[in-house]
Amino acid sequence: MEKDKQEYNPYENRTVEKPSSDIRATANIIKASLGSGLLAGPLAFSNSGWGVGLIGTFAIGIICGHCVHILVKTSYGCCKLERKPLLGYAETCKSAFANGPKFIRPYASVASIFAELAMLCTYVGVCCIYTVLISDSIKQLIDRYVPSLNLSVEYYCLIILIPLCLLCQVRYLKWLAIFSILANLFLFLTYLICFYYIFRSPLSFEGKTAAGDPSRFPAFLSTVIFAMEGIGVVMPVENAMKKPQHFLGCPSVLVVAMTAIVFFYSTLGFFGYLRYGDVLRGSITLNLPIEDWPAICAKIFIAMSIFFTYPLQFYVVYDIFKKYTDVYIKDDYKKITDIASRTLGVCFCVGIGIALPLLEQIINIVGSCFYSILGLIIPGIVETAFRWGDLGTLKWVMWKNILIILFGLTALVSGCTVTIMDIIQILRKKNE
Which one of 70, 144, 161, 346 is least enclosed by Cβ atoms within 10 Å? Predict the structure, then answer.
């Protein structure tokens, strides 16, 4: 029996409706990570200093990429043991616990529920951030060219609600990849325009610190983790690939995607900080001069990029919802229920965005709390549980994962503390 389990190949037994190519999978992974987080890079570097920022970005990129690697590898191992063609994020957590040491097996269902709750909170938070960022960009343009129409960000959130509801009706990752490619194109154009303004005059290190105030390092960690992580989309993307064996390895979908993510983030963060210093806002596009046409294009492009990314992030939220409700819905009503529930889900996310329009602080909360749990802590625990009987020489796998978990906990506690203090300070100023 054990021999049969070892010989079971999940990839050969996997049947996927409308599978994605390697290029589409890479586009989805890049887009899942790079969005508003990329444009917050200069702000992150202003919190850390350019030296700490560069080293920290490369280090966090390696850690995040490694956590994705061990999660996918563990999922493959669980598929072989369970004799299943594919497993989602939460299902992988459940299987790893169920096949791990005896003392954690009773908690397999708890691990699954916790993982899905973390996933749901994370991607609802991301959808809220995207709503606010799109609305902020539109508001800047309207305020500049139609000054008589003085609307708050909350009203713009409501205006984009209908287009978002329509876009989120797309059901398959294969078709969402087309939107991801468009979003990546718009983001790359925004990246080039930002560099046009950054290098329009000579850069100077004067007044720019290599290492910033240590008390602001947690804010740097939170923002970078938010930008680098897209782990909730990883398992759906890998599960939907035509050739899932190409996801890991070198070169692979993961290596290409993470290399691109680290390159874009570190270059824009470093040079953006040198140009704008400590006066940066949540997104570098909000610092660009609104009267210049390239800056206007950048604001339009980033709004379009994030708009086209929204359904990919929402896919994770809806996938969790669908998993628990599908069994209770009759086939005759599934189509109308699908449309209605997607619409209500978008309305819920936009509603939270309206209630909490503090862009920088929401980014830090999602990065420090939710992504630390989802992208660092859970993968470290899951791999350790699954490989409990084979932790390597001197149990190096366990010690390595303990360091990853401690890093995630540090980012979680310190990031949340700093962000909550920032929110309190902002609210005090508003009430004065």
Answer: 144
Q: What is the pTM of this model?
A: 0.81
* Helices within 229-372 (DSSP H only): 231-239, 253-276, 293-325, 334-355, 359-365, 372
> How many CA atoms, within 13 angstroms, populate the side-chain half-sphere of residue 158?
6
- Residues 60/224, Cβ–Cβ less than 8 Å: yes
DSSP annotation of 21: P
CB 132 within 8 A of CB 353: yes
Q: Which two tokens stand for residue 146?
A: 């139609």
Angstrom distance (rounded) from CA 228 to CA 351 = 26
3-state secondary structure of 412: helix
d(CA 264, CA 41): 9
Q: What is the pLDDT of residue 1?
A: 40
> In 49-82, where does DSSP find H-type helix?
50-82
35 three-class SS: coil
394 Rama sector, left if φ>0, alpha if ψ -120 to 50, beta otherwise: left
What tokens were used for 162?
A: 């209908």
Single-letter amino acid code for the residue at 426: I
Question: Do residues 309 and 183 make contact, with C-beta atoms less than 8 angstroms apart?
Answer: yes
The predicted-structure confidence for 278-324, as pLDDT tens digits, reads as follows 665 556 766 777 778 888 888 888 888 888 888 888 888 888 888 77
Cα(332)–Cα(142) distance, rounded to whole angstroms?
Answer: 44
Beta bridge partners of 241: 20
HSE value, Cβ hemisphere, 13 Å, CA-based, for 152: 7
Output the six-digit token pair for 211. 């290492």
Name the amino acid, one letter, at 350. V
Buried b or exposed e, range 327-337, using 16+ CB within 10 angstroms: eeeeeeeeeeb
Listed as own residue / partner, the contacts of 104-108 with beta carbons closer than 8 Å and 24 or more positions apart are: 104/385
Residues pairing with 20 in the sheet: 241
| Tokens 């009267």 -> residue | 291
Q: What share of the chain is helix, strand, coil (3-state, %, to 5)?
A: 80, 0, 20
Q: Give residue 429's Cα distance to chain centre.
A: 31
Chain centroid to CA 257: 13
Enter the tokens of residue 273. Answer: 């900080």
